Amino acid sequence: MTWAANNNNADSNNTTQSGTVAGNTISVVTSYTGTLGGLAPGNMANNSTGGVGLNNFELVNVIPQLLSNGSQPTGIAGNFSTTTFTFTKLVSSLTFSIEDIDHNYNPQPNGAADSTTQFFDQVAILPATGATVSAVLGSQLTGSGTLASPWRTTGRANSYIAEQTATVTITGGFKSFSIRYWTTEGATSANANMWVRIRSMTVSSCST
Question: Whole domain around residue 166: which residue ranges?
């Protein structure tokens, strides 16, 4: 997959992207749902940070804010982004990686949590009817990649590591799928971002 844009600024407020593979074109659109303070239309940027090249882009959300007393607001998991990938031709097999599914807890020296940028990534695949999703998970990931059991980390590292990467394969003659992305923890900063990176996408198109 070759992406049309090369935008190294993760704060560019892009909500669309496009790319091509031989004989097929993909469009990508992100929408945002939520009412809590701090959540605003975030970003989808083609990003080369992390030393992984330009065959990738990031899905970036603004983290929903904690309540003034530092507690989690009711319904925080109902604030999310939905990124939909649509092909012009049927796809028989699609493989890609989702990196940096992490938990930014940042404990202070006294053991307390620094909630300034706190988040807990939750990622789910919404496949098209008839499509089948499978994944190879890094050693720190758990879950089945569904809304009821999203992929999430069991670790604390906040970095691009293989242990927090899901390698996803979708099969079955489809033209679209979506990624739902949210956090179950909030932050005290109104401008704190969280993100995951989509990379190394390869596609096998059907003949028609």
Answer: 2-205
Give the span between the Cα atoms of 189 and 115, in whole angstroms.
8
pLDDT (tens digit per residue) in 79-127? 888 989 999 989 999 999 999 999 887 666 666 666 788 889 999 999 9
Number of structural domains the chain divides into: 1
3-class secondary-structure state, position 182: strand
Taking the model in full, what pTM does it have?
0.86
Q: Is 206 helix (H, G, I), strand (E, B) or coil?
A: coil
Cβ atoms of residues 186 and 118 within 8 Å: yes
User: How far, in Å, CA of 139 to CA of 133, rounded?
Assistant: 19
Q: What is the dihedral of CA 17, 42, 164, 116, to 10 degrees?
A: 160
